């Protein structure tokens, strides 16, 4: 059991929701759920009950929560003491983040830097994927996350930190079950997809080219939370990341039509000529 699992346990207990805890911890909902499940397997007890109003502590969970909070407080005091006796690396690190990039990879970087280098100030800036490389070159970003399929420029170093799949889905009950693989039928539906400059937007455009036609009704949305809301609300079919699709299917919101791409890499990147800067080295060591 590690400190990150205890943080997830305490956050879910305090928030009463995996979704709110994941946002607080900069982790994905599946990652927080995995932490809780791992703790329950290690301890051999059930910590939470899922209710219509959220996550409620069991009797065992209620008994263990004060111990977890005490451990987290002791851990923070240890870090504070270490900061007093160690000359810490300081400065500002500006992190560029492309739209819909893995929040788990970003959360890992921010969490580890905060823990090991508490004097580093971090600014997180969101930008379209196409602007990430330019932002590194012009100095807007020190490091960045992006899932662009483009070949990295010669002046870039890249580290693949994770990957995700992309599915085509429809609102539950919207489509004729026997026509879901019929492109002519699908092209007649309203589609909700990101702009062509994004990774998923490019996948949609490639799918249209592969099928030889573009749906007549397109709604462009670059925020995946809004995409999920519109699709599950019956507006039309669309592309979503597979972890989002898994959650939406469990809630009965969407039906899977097909997998568009099973593995889209997510990269952490920085300029080669800055590789020896201490703050860049700290970021690299925290992400690997």
How would you explain this protein's 3D organization?
With 288 residues, the protein is an alpha/beta fold. The protein folds into three domains: 3-85, Orthogonal Bundle (Arc Repressor Mutant, subunit A); 91-163 and 266-287, 3-Layer(aba) Sandwich (D-Maltodextrin-Binding Protein, domain 2); 164-262, Periplasmic binding protein-like II (D-Maltodextrin-Binding Protein, domain 2, 3-Layer(aba) Sandwich), CATH 3.40.190. The chain is 46% helix and 26% strand. It contains eleven helices and ten strands. The strands form two sheets. An eight-stranded mixed β-sheet has the order 4-3-5-10-6-9-7-8, sandwiched between helices.
Shape: flat
Q: Round the mean pLDDT to the nearest integer and report it.
A: 88
In terms of quaternary structure, what is this? single chain
Query: Radius of gyration over alpha carbons?
Result: 22 Å
| Annotated CATH topology of the largest domain | D-Maltodextrin-Binding Protein, domain 2
Helix content: 40-55%
How large a portion of the residues is in β-strands, by DSSP E? 25-35%
- According to CATH, the homologous superfamily of the largest domain is Periplasmic binding protein-like II
Question: What is the CATH architecture descriptor of the largest domain?
Answer: 3-Layer(aba) Sandwich
- End-to-end C-alpha gap: 20 Å
Indicate the structural class.
Answer: alpha/beta
Helix count equals 11
Number of domains: 3
Organism: Marinomonas gallaica
Pfam family, one: HTH_1
GO molecular function, one term: DNA-binding transcription factor activity
Family: Belongs to the LysR transcriptional regulatory family.
């Amino acid at each position: 059991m590690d400190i990150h699992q205890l943080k997830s346990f305490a956050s879910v207990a305090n928030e009463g929701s995996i979704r709110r805890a994941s946002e607080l911890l900069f982790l994905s909902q599946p990652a927080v759920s995995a932490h809780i499940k791992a703790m329950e397997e290690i301890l051999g007890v059930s910590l939470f009950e899922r209710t219509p109003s959220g996550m409620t502590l069991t009797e065992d969970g209620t008994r263990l929560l004060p111990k977890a909070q005490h451990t987290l407080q002791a851990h923070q005091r240890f870090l504070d003491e270490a900061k007093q006796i160690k000359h810490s690396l300081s400065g500002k690190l500006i992190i560029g983040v492309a739209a819909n990039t893995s929040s788990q990879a970003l959360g890992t970087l921010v969490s580890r830097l905060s823990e090991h280098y508490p004097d580093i100030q971090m600014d997180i800036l969101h930008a379209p994927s196409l602007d990430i490389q330019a932002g590194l070159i012009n100095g807007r970003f020190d490091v960045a996350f992006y899932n662009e399929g483009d070949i990295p420029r010669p002046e870039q170093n890249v580290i693949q930190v994770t990957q995700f799949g992309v599915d085509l889905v429809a609102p539950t009950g919207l489509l004729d079950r026997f026509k879901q693989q019929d492109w002519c039928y699908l092209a007649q539906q309203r589609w909700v997809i990101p702009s062509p400059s994004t990774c998923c937007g490019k996948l949609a455009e490639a799918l249209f080219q592969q099928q030889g036609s573009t749906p007549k009704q397109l709604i462009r949305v670059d925020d995946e939370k809004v995409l999920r809301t519109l699709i599950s609300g019956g507006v039309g079919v669309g592309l979503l990341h597979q972890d989002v699709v898994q959650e939406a299917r469990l809630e009965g919101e969407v039906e899977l039509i097909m997998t568009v791409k099973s593995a889209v890499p997510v990269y952490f990147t920085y300029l080669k000529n800055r590789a020896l800067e201490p703050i860049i080295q700290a970021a690299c060591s925290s992400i690997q």
